[in-house]
Automatic annotation (TrEMBL), chains A, B:
NAD(+) binds at residues 74-87, 277-289. InterPro entries: IsoCit/isopropylmalate_DH_CS, IsoPropMal-DH-like_dom, Isopropylmalate_DH. It comes from the Bacteria. Keywords: Amino-acid biosynthesis, Branched-chain amino acid biosynthesis, Cytoplasm, Leucine biosynthesis, Magnesium, Manganese, Metal-binding, NAD, Oxidoreductase. SUPFAM superfamilies: Isocitrate/Isopropylmalate dehydrogenase-like. Mg(2+) binds at residues 219, 243, 247. It comes from Neobacillus pocheonensis. This is 3-isopropylmalate dehydrogenase.
Length: 349, 349
């Protein structure tokens, strides 16, 4: 399997090495062969090529079986014009590879739950998966422009039926693999696009009789994620709502530095990245938490390569290293042992 | 001053009486005169007139100095086609009266903070005001329609410069009256409308040198509201982001049943309503919490009638009744006394 590595910026450059180390260990243990190729994206690409997403990066990713991405962004590029900002690289590669399904599993680690802003009795036991549509909606709809000499502006939230169908199917299938409950989130009391979304979910549900479906409004879901996060299993929603709700959900368990994500194409090719950002404040110090990157690598094995046992082994290794009390400086474990990126990775390996 | 009462549905019909009782007491105490007129909106209007917003209601509100609204909605109308749903009445009256500025102060009550899903050390001391644009954006932009024989759909997020300017001014002014900090929330790394929004905030800030301004992305704000709610003073944002973030914020302090809102026009005419809904499950039982409605009435006195002392007196009365331990069934106060809507109102009066 051929893997393209996109370290990106900040701690992305550090944690990507952890992914590689873990894959080497997996290759050895299971007799697999992974080949690697590294390319630039984000700020690093702006510095080197004058664009956040060089053609060479797109081409390499287009030929890969999967892509691992560290993180993009940093203060150096914060005041750039928008086509020269690091996150354009991210948006561009999602669209170029047609990575329509963003999966974000959010589950707390028992020994880290104390870091949650929520009371333990509220958050304990929560285990949800957000399935976010990633290549449509307000992010890519046209027109998106100034009008009337700059006196007005429009953005466009557009979806085709096919775009909604494929993400809804993905979510139903994910629910079948989990606890069989799907919450479809929309704003059907206001948006025409949400009404079509709701209709499609209703049409599809006959195909998945083992999944119970519930429709919820985005505003009320934003409340319930906080007051009752354990009520959710799989949440499916459009791009912008997914952006907001998945970030909201990511802080519930107090384990932001531990959360992976997968962005998938229909044929299973995918891009895998930590939920956390490039953390410029701690970049280059060797103290970044590699766990989100390593768990993203596990998702790659599971979703793109269908290597479930290998994925599970990585996840178990992370859990057991935490159980042994090892942790990076973003975490606290009582009676634990503070280690840097390399040592944390070594223990997991 | 002439006040139109729109009880609406469910517990709206009950708590609206509490508003009236409180206004009678204020009138007597301060020698004011308030006249009242009651009209239908929402489900009640659908039942009686076949539309959630009868012309007669719009006309009456158009002539009022202020409008008090209870709540709209209920299971009876949940499966109606969208033009016959109760919330259409709410959206319609906002637009008809040009109520562009939705203000939602969110502050916990000390003796209720224990009901928060957040840890006390996280939420304690939080006191924020969300200023939401209410008559533009995705809610009212056109086109909003099916296309290609139902194979695709669009909604439109549109704003004029003037619409953004007036809400941003409102928010700066609110910040001046409070702790002088404004967080402008957008998605400027993706949306053209957000870029214009950000530009306008930048242009305006010279006019308000006593206010410090910060720009934040909607996704990261959804996180920070939970991890660090005390960092916010005034938040200003567009309609849909405001819908999501204000609902999210409303559950932080554990006092959802206590939260008022104001929706204002440029000349000060406003509509005031509780943040909570029509609560069909407890409607008609005389047990609804009237505090959000009563505090909405205080906001009416403050914003539409400029009766600050009167508004403050109501707010102090609510606090002192809570301090005495009186509470409705949605709340718990240790060693408190459980009362119904009427008795809670009587104590506040
Ligand atoms: C960086 C930004 C454009 C991106 C998004 O909004 O999708 C990010 O917030 C994410 O969720 O991956
Ligand atoms: C009922 C609904 C249309 C409304 C909105 O989305 O504005 C409500 O959620 C609110 O926040 O007042």
């Amino acid at each position: 399997k051929h893997v393209v590595l996109l370290p990106g910026d900040g701690i992305g450059k550090e944690v990507i090495n952890s992914a590689k180390d873990v894959l080497h260990a997996i290759a050895e243990e299971f007799n697999h062969e992974f080949s690697f190729e590294t390319h630039e994206i984000g700020g690093a690409a702006i510095d080197q090529y004058g664009t956040p997403l060089p053609e060479s990066t797109v081409e390499a990713c287009g030929q890969a079986d999967a892509v691992l991405l560290g993180a993009v962004g940093g203060p150096k590029w914060d005041n750039n014009p928008s086509h020269l900002r690091p996150e354009r690289g991210l948006l561009g590669i999602r669209k170029a590879l047609d990575l329509y399904a963003n999966l974000r599993p959010i589950k707390g680690f028992k020994n880290l739950l104390h870091a949650s802003p929520l009371k333990e009795e509220v958050v304990s036991g929560s285990d949800l998966l957000i399935v976010r549509e990633l290549t449509g909606g307000l992010y890519f709809g046209t027109p998106s422009e100034r009008r009337d000499n700059g006196q007005s502006v429009v953005d466009t939230l557009s979806y085709t039926r096919k775009e909604i169908e494929r993400i809804v199917d993905k979510a139903f299938q994910a629910a079948q693999q989990r606890r069989g409950h799907l919450t479809s989130v929309d704003k059907a009391n206001v948006l025409e696009s949400s009404k079509l979304w709701r209709e499609i979910v209703e049409e599809k549900k006959a195909q998945y009789p083992d999944v119970t479906v519930e429709h919820a409004l985005v505003d009320s879901t934003a409340m319930k994620l906080i007051t009752n996060p354990t009520q959710f299993d799989v949440i499916v929603t459009e791009n912008m709502f997914g952006d907001i709700l998945s970030d909201e959900a990511s802080v519930l368990t107090g384990s932001l530095g531990m959360l992976p994500s997968a962005s998938l194409r229909e044929d299973g090719v995918g891009l895998y990245e930590p939920v956390h950002g490039s953390a410029p404040d701690i970049a280059g110090k060797g103290i970044a938490n590699p766990v989100a990157m390593i768990l993203s690598t596990a998702l790659m094995l599971r979703y793109s390569f269908e290597l479930e046992a290998e994925a599970k082994l990585i996840e178990d290794a992370v859990q057991s290293v935490l159980d042994s009390g090892f942790h990076t400086s973003d975490l606290q474990i009582s009676n634990g042992r503070l280690v840097g990126t390399a040592e944390m990775t070594k223990h997991i390996v």
